[in-house]
Design brief:
By secondary structure, the protein is an alpha+beta fold. It is built from 12 helices and 16 strands. It has 3 domains: about 70 residues, no CATH class; about 200 residues, Glycosyltransferase (Alpha/alpha barrel); about 140 residues, Sandwich (Maltose phosphorylase, domain 3), CATH 2.60.420. Strands 1-2-3-4 form a 4-stranded antiparallel beta sheet, with no helix packed on it. A 4-stranded antiparallel beta sheet has the order 15-14-13-16, with helices on one face. The longest helix has 21 residues.
């Protein structure tokens, strides 16, 4: 018995006086509904919070064996148990048996992999066999999704970017830049393979439309704050109360998505991912201001965020913060930082450590077919060595603190090794004292404690 009547006795009416989270599971059971074919627990319309998410389909059972120590005639050999399927409050739309999703940027991610492969390896086989078709189909997708406004600016409306705490927005910067890159890449590939392009029905007018959209893409910018907007209007949303959420991470387990979507809180790097992937579209001052602004609003409830934030923090000189993020990505399972390593390893986070070290402290970038380095080491890393394959050549990179701290050795003669680094020009070519099998690891001192959420800048 409860101390007071949570559910008053009324004729032909079941009514709850108020929302009591301690009685949520009971409320869901009492308000469950069924029509003989489908049964739904009385979950909230938003799908969360919940006691037990439940949707039950009649005639959808799980068969289990019923063993007997001494079987006999007529003994049942199996039993059936009704299965709790995916919560019906969270609707998933399918088109031709494929999930309907608004995270269209994934298409551009795949297209970028096609162009990156050609740029890094110099091999056009992939592009010739399947790559051109991928680039063309994805470019046509972007044309179908985007539109030019009255001023000729090209927009993409109603999409979701990498950040899962922001959804169904207009002009997500990562999505727009990825789409523009996709469109330009498709146009260039079509021109490299005119016969195959004709087979795919590509016309000169279509290629021109791709280039036009890419050149006119909208990149939202807040002139008052002097930062890029993750999506149109993002910097004008209400702030999130991080102090009240100090002990409530991950936020998705403590707050409804309705609140997350309409406030300035970011689960994983989004604008900063755009800044890493498409760094040639941002100048150094904008990069520094963007890092300062979005660092304070990113809670890293996804293990995929730390490595990207390490790269962007290192690029603008926040080396100790970048080091903390590298440590977080590397130690996520060894120290069970997210308290869920028992469910399986965070393989993507562990793999991203290489990216955090090489692109972060090594400053490795590839823009428009040119390889570059911009190394900066934090105090706790005394040496960084790694190898990369570049157009059939194996480059061995060794970075140490001090003047002329970048050395690049190669096994065979390479026509062009173009790179830059902070504080002067690096050294290319064969250095007999440096030409050896380098480790793909950093020599570090005592590791720091895991960083607080969200990250803070000094």
């Amino acid at each position: 018995m409860t101390e007071r009547a949570e559910f008053p006795v009324e004729p032909w009416c079941l009514r709850e006086r108020g929302l009591n989270l301690d009685l949520l599971a009971r409320s869901e059971s009492l308000f469950a509904m069924s029509n003989g074919h489908i049964g739904l627990r009385g979950n909230l319309d938003e799908g969360e919070p919940y006691g037990i998410p439940g949707t039950y389909l009649n005639s959808f059972y799980e068969v289990r064996p019923l063993p007997h120590a001494e079987p006999g005639y007529g003994y049942p050999e199996s039993g059936q148990e009704i299965v709790n399927v995916t919560n019906g409050k969270l609707i998933r739309l399918l088109v031709d048996d494929a999930p309907l999703d608004v995270r269209f940027h994934i298409n551009a991610d795949i297209a970028a992999a096609v162009t990156r492969y050609r740029s890094v390896t110099g091999d056009e086989t992939l592009e010739t066999e399947v790559g051109l078709e991928i680039l063309v189909d994805t470019a046509r997708l972007w044309i179908s999704l985007g539109h030019h406004d009255l001023d000729g600016v090209w927009h993409i409306a109603g999409v979701t970017g990498p950040d899962e705490y922001t959804a169904i927005v207009n002009d997500n910067v990562f999505t727009n830049l990825a789409a523009a890159h996709n469109l330009r890449s498709a146009a260039e590939a079509a021109e490299r393979h005119p016969r195959r392009a004709r087979d795919l029905g590509i016309t000169l007018e279509e290629v021109a439309a791709w280039r036009d959209a890419a050149g006119a893409v909208n990149i939202p910018y807040d002139p008052d704050l002097r930062v890029h907007q993750q999506s149109a209007g993002f910097t004008r949303l209400p702030p999130w109360d991080f102090e009240a959420s100090r002990e409530k991470y991950p936020l998705l387990l403590h707050a409804p998505y309705f609140d997350l979507y309409r406030r300035q809180v970011i689960r994983q790097a989004d604008l900063l991912l755009a800044q890493y992937w498409f760094g040639d579209r941002f100048d150094d001052e904008n990069k520094a201001r963007n890092v300062d602004y979005y660092e304070r609003r990113t809670v890293r409830d996804s293990s995929l965020s730390a490595a990207v934030q390490a790269v962007t923090a290192a690029e603008v000189g926040h080396l100790e913060l970048a080091y903390d993020y590298v440590y977080e990505a590397a130690q996520i399972d060894l120290r069970d930082l997210d308290h869920n390593s028992g469910d399986g390893m965070h393989i993507a986070s562990l793999a991203s450590v290489w990216t955090a070290l090489v692109a972060g402290f090594g400053g490795l970038r590839e823009y428009q077919g040119q390889l570059s380095f911009a190394p900066q080491l934090p105090d706790l890393i005394t040496r960084l060595s790694f190898t990369v394959q570049w157009r059939g050549q194996r480059l061995e990179v060794d970075i140490e603190p001090g003047p002329g701290d970048l050395w690049v050795a190669r096994q065979d003669r390479l026509r062009v090794v173009a790179f830059r680094h902070h504080g002067g020009r690096g050294h290319g070519g064969r250095r007999k004292a440096r030409h050896r099998a380098y480790q793909q690891a950093a020599s570090t001192a005592t590791p720091p404690a895991a960083t607080a959420r969200p990250g803070t800048l000094a």
